[in-house]
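Hi W.,

Here's what went into the run:
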Amino acid sequence: MKLYFKRFSALMLMTYVISAVSFAETYVRYEQNGKTSWGELKGETIHQLSNAPYLEGMATGLKVNQADVKMMAPVDPRDVYMTGFNYEDHIPEGQKTTPYPGLFMVPAGTLIGPDAEIIHPADSDFIGYEAETVIVIGKRADNVSVEDAADYIFGVTAGNDVSARDWIPADIQWFRGKGAKGFNSVGPVLQTGLDYKNLTLTARLNGEVRQNGNTSKMIHDFEKMVSYISKYFVLNPGDLIWSGTIGTSEQLKVGDVYEVEIDGVGVLRNTIIQGK
Amino acid sequence: MNIKTTVAGVIAALLINNAAFAERYVRYEEHGTVSWGELVDGVVYQLSSAPYHGGKRTGHTLNETDAKLKAPVDPNQSFMTAFNYRDHKLPGYEQDPTKRPGLFTVPVSSIVGPEDDLVRPAEAKNFHYEAEMVIVVGKRAENVSLEDSSDYIFGITIGNDGSERDWQASDIQWLRAKGSKNFNAVGPHLVTGLDYTDLDIEGRHNGVKSQGANSSGMIFDFNYMVHYISKYFVLEPGDVIWSGTMGDTGSMKPGDTYAITVEGVGTLENKLVQEK
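Here's what came out:
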């Protein structure tokens, strides 16, 4: 009887694992011969999709080896929402905070992918890293309750919200300091089926750990964020919401490599290059 | 041939030439479908796509009065400018706006058309009008010189950047105060061929003049804005840039109207309603 029970448990566990695996899919965007496509990544093979997965893209039948193409940011949003001061350990003394999310936006044109370089502008003296977790919206969200918000979250990726620390106090709003071109890397994959309320994030500067945390420590978790944002704005499929960063953000210099690793998503690695 | 005939002929030729250059575009809804159109003498000539994407007449026409006019813009990015007229000030902002444009962004879902209402959320108490001019970018602009920037400006329309002043003071960034859904009215037409550096603008609250300026009073004119924005961001065809507002703004109550007239463009008039 005991043996049967063990076998039964093992079977149940396997069924659970298989169902979880089939639910968890890995999507990428890639460029080949000058054309950008969505694809589903299985092992090291990309199966091309006709459209974004959250827009019901279907397999076209074309396959390509991941190593043979340039990986692009696995997102294609119009609106990119970011959050200031969403982890206690990232709130400096004396910083103004609000009981609701500290929202702002950057233009989608700022996004770069895992195979691109972060640009250090010539006219900034200090850019800093900010490792973050990023969610992608799966369907149009307008006035969604916190209870229903999970239905609107398609998947998770990693992001580095590079910020020009000298521009932020110099400008009236954070927009340029947070959203200039080449500042925000995203990737390497868009992963579904993850528990975005409990994801460990580790970030390394030239191989040395500089930031780490878990999304369970977000002051406003992603479901609250979707509900709050959808009260004031309309979220469309593909739009992004960034978690806010953790701990201390320090300087990135030309030639540095910054890596953001999230369990189940992988490592987003970018090199900093000099801009004009 | 007398001199009078010659002069009249030259003037007529100039007028015709000018008229051909100054075109008037609309976006409208018919049977649930939104299209671009060219407006000539009260007739809308449907276009195959946006005029800045080379849209051509499809052959379908309708009377202007039968078209429900939408905002005559379809951007992915909406760039706004703070404190771009010397006479517009807000308490708590002491920054010198003359150093560089006070840029920020709002999501395009905040935009409504000339026949729509502005909507004041239930919890909002201090919704202000802001009369502005809005230009539409005609082609991809990246690192454009000041000398070349006029080539990237397709046309001009009118905007009311509705702003919740209490939220603007309470929030960390202006996004919600400036960019909530149904806060930003744009229209009625998109007009090419105007000298956007020298146009009169007037705003009327319930018919009473409350704002007025000429675009020559902009601290950073639209040519400079395109140059500056394209240094840090990438502008795509259809993107919009707002001038910033002038003078003092006032609070609107539900039922109030705000009308903005820009020389050569027309009048954008919207009513404010209370969110249900």
